[in-house]
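In the previous lecture we treated proteins in isolation. Real proteins rarely work alone, and many bind small molecules. This record shows how such a complex is specified: first the sequence, then the SMILES for fe (ii) ion.
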Amino acid sequence: MGEFVEWHADFSVGNSSIDEQHKGLFELVNQMWDSRKESEKKKRVLFKGIVKALRTHCHDEERILAKNGCPSLKEHRHEHHNLIKQIEEILDSCDKDCKKSWYKMMGFLMHELLAHHLVGTDQACRKYLRS
Ligand SMILES: [Fe+2]
Ligand SMILES: [Fe+2]
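The predicted 3D structure, ligand included, written as tokens:
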């Protein structure tokens, strides 16, 4: 069986370390999908891993955008900030009802993170991510 989501060369920003991090985020989305029947405890561990990976990624990406003088750095940073805020709220909601949080997390990852940010905003900044 194929992966749930797959990184594609069209999503490349032309920087191998950023591309590797993006691939890693796709991989974590696959792990999330695979975790649907796992225990709440396992789901929570995975949620935490994604929060951590996203924080690191946003930080690294912002450093490169700043170094290359990206004109939309402020907006990009703001979007990262919102993504992290949202994902942390979902992680917190896991304390109440982790099953429900799993659906929220999948929705967030597919829509906000992959479709909107990685394939949208990051692509628009590729010129400033190349080196
Ligand atoms: Fe990114
Ligand atoms: Fe980004």
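Summary for your notes: Residues 22, 57, 61, 118, 122 surround fe (ii) ion (ligand 1) (CB under 6 Å). The mean pLDDT is 96.
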